[in-house]
Amino acid sequence: MSDTIPDPRHAADDDLRHVVASLPLPRRIELLSGSGFWATTAIEEADIPSIVLTDGPHGVRRQPDDSDHLGIGNSIPATCFPTASLLGATWDRDLLHEVGAALGREARSLGVGVLLGPGLNIKRHPAGGRNFEYLSEDPVVSGHLAAAIVRGTQSEGVGACLKHFVANNHESYRMVVDVIVDERTLRELYLRGFEIAVREGRPWVVMTSYNQVNGQYVSDSRHLLHDVLRSTWDFDGAVVTDWGGIHDRVAAVRAGTDLEMPSSGGAYDALVRRAVESGELGDDEVTERALAVARLARRSRAAHERLGPVEIDHLEQHRLSRRVAAAGTVLLTNDGTLPLRSDADIAVIGAFAARPRLQGAGSSSVVPTREDAPLRALEERMTGRVRYSDAYDPDTGRSDPSRLRAAAELAATVDVAVVIVGLPAIDEAEGYDRTSLSLPAAHDELVAAVCAANPRTVVVVQSGAPVFMPWVERAGAVVFAYLAGQAAGSALVDVLLGEAEPGGRLAETMPASMAIPANENFHGRGRQVQYREGLYVGYRYYDTAGIAPRFAFGHGLSYTTFEWSDPQVTGSGTDLDVSVTVTNTGLRPGSDVVQLYVAGPKSSLDRPDKELREFAKVSLDPGASSTVRLHLDERAFAHFDRRSEAWVVEPGPRTLHLAASALDVRHRLDVTVGSVEVSHADLEPTPRPARRRTRFLSTATEFEAMLGRPIPAPTPALPFTLDTVVEELDTTRLGRVARRGFERIAAQQSAKLLGDDPDPVLVKLSQQMLREAPLRFLVSMSAHQGARSAFEALTALLSTLRLTGRR
Ligand code: BGC
What is the DSSP pairing of strand 212-213 with strand 53-55? Predict the structure, then answer.
């Protein structure tokens, strides 16, 4: 290795490789891990700056000091945009590009190089704890919308970071869980959104998820990071671990993980150095990874320099947040009670009216620059009388009979009752899943009582994910407001008064029960989760089973009416242009979402009834028309064949469904697609279902056939290793003692962070986090060089004592 480092100021971009390769090995290794919690390591002699990466995704969570990643510490106030489930419900690429740009601008103003978002994991189950942070149950919606956010953010010189790559679809045991999923489902459902977002958005960064996929941690997986992400999708950015998620440092470098975050204080650096010295890891592999980090840092600095400083107009940001919130608000039912007349006398019922839920808890939680509450906004804008009853405790969701009675009595005296219900904050957080889809019992009772007292009741649900709505038919109108960010109140009132239309369409199914195939293998079995339902997630299941959910994927009402006419398809083979003319036939401006699903052919392959392949949103004034054009390419007709590892188009007929929801098909067009390049002799034979499928949960034998191998045995709890989760230490008596020790230390630390009057959500979150943390996470977080060997010695000792019977 050369010991002279070229003068970096003169190094053109092309020379960066040479600059990095010329660094001594320890310096290159330093680049592969962060400096502190939120920054990369600077290598001054090579003119490689340090840049800041910070959360994300729906606002900038820039912490002034080097603290934590759970939203526990304070962060600088920043615009709190609606969370991803509302953004997904906009189905609006242009608008989300604007949101991405606004996020990017604000991030740049705060000196941030990379914003950690968007999150685009598939909502496999409606009770996923972090669903509020994800866009959709469908990869086409997730992928295109994420790409729009990425492009917006990056247009302002700030890198976007797709997360969490991949199959991080629930929270329980997220740092160790092994997701067992067949390759076809993985490619078509869980990877597909990332593929679209990478190809279309060209993100600077991708974050690996904490979990394993088919027996391998994603950050160690050369298959996922090299073969799929880089070689097949042409990803040219940097791969970063989720915070504290590094598993096997050497395997990760080899696989293509560039940056370990946060810094583990050099705890793992010696392993990388030794691996290179022993020949286990190539020196050039370290260079390659260091180069990706150096490129990211230089790219970020150049973008900041090019675009210069930026002043944020917080009012403008707030206005955008308000516009987006209305655009993703979903009107589920309406008998004409909405929009409200501003001179009506109304009762506003529910504590969330005064203290709305704006976002979920955890790393995504930002400190808003301001907060609009619905009650205040209604009081300001209604000319009629506005009376208020809080009806329940906003923290616990509990109530009592007299409060419920008072609310119902108030409702009986007014023209319209607006009742706001939702999940208490403790039910929606990173780090744990929900155990039920029900609202607090008192909320259901409240809605039932208010609807009984006044049929002209508007129910507003504030929740980042589906809930059961057993009273839905009794309400005059139901508005699903999601977690709408800091403008939640003003945006809601815009919609209630008809000053903005409810532009949202569900990007996820609203179920009426937990009877979905993924429920059997959702979580709760600790270290392994089998995705035995395959592709039958969300509408793919309901459609194919012929079961109506509470509200279908894609559903959402408008205050105006639309007519779809003149459906056309042109082109040939798999290269098709589909169009339909949409006319606003009502009296108000409004928007509609054209959803294009592809069905068929009925052949040898087991597949969902129909799958979304394209969509477009169109906004129209009353009486106006527009022809919406959607393009379909080969991928819209292809499936992934496991055996040949290729996307394959089966020749034969297809039906194109132009639809306003998965259940509301407006036009059907029949086409035939032609032959394929892949020889059918090589393809995997898949038994054709004899009749309509009635069972969607595969048996162990069927699942093994889908996997093409036996279902692996879950990892046993003993012997203890660095992958052992804190609560698994309970397996032995001495382990229990060690666990109590960790808990004591953690309790002391969080007491310091949380103060005298701790937020119960954060207490639950941090306790859960520790209980399910693998010991290697504690190594990373201790940021201490000696931590790894100390923990290794401890696990060896605990396992040995167990094995020699001395429990
Ligand atoms: C979350 C990431 C987040 C990171 C940094 C992790 O716990 O999973 O989404 O970006 O922390 O706060």
Answer: unpaired
77 burial level (CB within 10 Å; 0-12, 13-18, 19+): middle
Task: Answer whether 541's CB lies under 8 Å from 150's CB.
Answer: no
Burial of 486 (0-12, 13-18, 19+ CB in 10 A): buried
The preferred substitution site among 37, 63, 69 for testing ligand 1, maximizing ligand atoms within 8 Å of CB, is 69
CA dist., res. 463 & res. 420, Å (int): 11
pLDDT digits (tens, 9 = 90+) for 285-304: 999 999 999 999 999 999 99
Residue with CA at minimum distance from ligand 1 atom 3: 363
DSSP per position, 306-328: HH------HHHHHHHHHHHHHHT
Catalytically annotated residues = 242
pLDDT of residue 604: 75
Q: CA-to-CA distance for 359 and 304, rounded, in angstroms? A: 29
Residues with CB under 6 A from ligand 1: 55-56, 69, 116, 163, 242-243, 363
Non-local (6+) Cβ contacts of 626 within 8 A are: 581, 582, 618, 620
CB 438 within 8 A of CB 444: yes
Q: Backbone phi, then psi, for 734, in 5-degree steps?
A: -70, -35
Find, among 746, 796, 788, the residue nearest to 771 by Cα: 746
Tell me how many degrees the CA angle 149-155-159 measures, rounded to the nearest 5. 70
Distance from C-alpha of 627 to C-alpha of 660, rounded to nearest angstrom: 15
Cα separation, 31 vs 20, in Å, equals: 10
Minimum CA distance residue for ligand 1 atom 7: 243
Q: How far, in Å, is the centroid of ligand 1 from the Cα of 454?
A: 45
Mutate to test the pocket of ligand 1, among 66, 114, 116 (most ligand atoms within 8 A of CB): 116
Instruction: Note the pLDDT of residue 677.
Output: 42
Q: Give residue 148 CA to ligand 1 midpoint distance, Å.
A: 21
**Residue from 363, 365, 762 to probe ligand 1 pocket by mutation (most atoms less than 8 Å from CB):** 363
> Nearest-CA neighbor of 607 among 638, 576, 634, 632?
638
Q: Which residues does the chain have with pLDDT short of 50?
A: 1-11, 676-683, 685-690, 804-807
Angle between helices 488-496 and 314-327 (to 10 degrees): 50
CA of 242 to the centre of ligand 1 (A): 6
Q: How far is the CA of 111 from the centre of ligand 1 (A)?
A: 19
The DSSP code for 684 is P
CA of 62 to the centre of ligand 1 (A): 13
Residues 165 and 170: their CA atoms lie apart, in Å, by 13
The answer to whether 509 and 466 have CB atoms below 8 angstroms apart is: yes
Q: Whose CA is nearest to atom 4 of ligand 1?
A: 243
Nearest-atom index, ligand 1, CA of 70? 12
Helix segments in 708-786, DSSP class H: 733-754, 760-771, 775-782
How far does Cα 318 stand from its chain's mean position? 23
Q: Would you state the pLDDT for residue 69?
A: 62
Residue with CA nearest ligand 1 atom 2: 242
CB 588 within 8 A of CB 562: no
Q: What is the pLDDT of residues 400-457, one digit of tens each?
A: 999 999 999 999 999 999 999 999 999 999 999 999 999 999 999 999 999 999 999 9
Cβ-based neighbours of 197, under 8 Å, separated by 6 or more: 118, 120, 142, 143, 144, 146, 147, 150, 162, 203
Locate the ligand 1 atom nearest the alpha carbon of residue 55 and give its number. 10
Residue 37 has a pLDDT of 92
The dihedral built from the CA positions of residue 61, 65, 70 and 75, taken in this order, carries a sign that is: negative
Beta-bridge mates of residue 673: 652
Distance 76 CA to ligand 1 centre (A): 17
DSSP 666: E
